[in-house]
Request: fold
Amino acid sequence: MKNYFDLTGKTALVIGASSGLGRQFAKALANQGASVAVAARRVEKLKETRKQVEEIGGGECIVVPCDVSDEQSIIDCINTVAQKFGKIDILCNNAGIIVWDDLLNSTTEGWNRAMATNVTGAYIASREAARFMVKQGSGRIINTASIAAHGGEAGSPSYYASKAAIANLTRALACELSPHGITVNAIAPGVFETELTAGSLDSPMAEAQKATLPVGRFGLEGELDGILIYLASDSSSFCTGQVIYVDGGQTCKM
Reply:
């Protein structure tokens, strides 16, 4: 029986893997047999991720420091992974921050910080990884967007703008890289319980939001694994330039 989602022999780099969705992505990829490089600024947190990945088995897992607000750090990270494994088959651009400021209280510094982390870092990582993928004639780039790419709300203009930018960056790169056997897609999660959302999901506002979701709850750990593995695998060879919402039905009502 064929396993359509087998990643044995593949090498994946997950940027933003120190916690939350990125850590879960690394575990999911390893569970399908991939060797995984986990990257972020917080090396001690990455070591915790590596320990959890190694408990799963699969291929090798390495820790690579990476600051997505620093271009040279990203370039060094990509080169380290390529030199270690001889290739990069899968790149997950998952690093992200939210700067909570309404427009009148926001600052250009906060805007630039959000854009540097959420958009520019993904652009640089994709560019550098694509250099190796083009030579290989294959590759998978998977960006983390958000339901924030679908529409805006008050409270964080930089976040909503950055996630919309990720969606269109995904489409543009898909058009450019498709002739080289490289697909580029984005996963757009709804509200999930992660370090990024910790402390905000037990508020009256969050409870009201939850009540409006068709499924009646927020996302749980592991509920992005299926779409991630599909996009990382050979089964998704005809799927590119897509922003796939995994949100409990939230955007179907927006």
